[in-house]
Automatic annotation (TrEMBL):
Entry-linked PANTHER family: RSBT ANTAGONIST PROTEIN RSBS, RSBT ANTAGONIST PROTEIN RSBS-RELATED
Protein name: RsbT antagonist protein RsbS
Domain of life: Bacteria
Domain STAS stretches: 6-117
Species of the source: Humibacillus xanthopallidus
Amino acid sequence: MNSGPALVSILRQGSTLIASIHTALDDSELVRFRTDLVGQIGEHRCRGVIIDVAALDVIDSFAALTLRTIAEMARLRGARTVIVGIQPEVAFTMVRLGMGTGGIPTALDLEEGLALLTGGADGDRRRS
């Protein structure tokens, strides 16, 4: 996205992509992230996507919309999406402003997100 430190990392673990957002992204960076992530779903034939937003202390309306769009695009390409790591203050603000995740499953952390995708013991515990 730029020549400085990575703003986002996308790693593959088996048939799951794990995308970690390391810092707040502007609108053009969010669009590039969406394009890159959705492209990699097909390239790696992934069945699951985890988006880790733990490093974010703010999720604005465009970022929330982009996350919902990624999840829908992933679904249309045959992959399920889970958002992990939403900070308490961010969750509070999103609820107060009516910015939900559009039914995208959420989990506290990466471990729970992976369990949710693989149908582990806590697989159906959290839904947004």
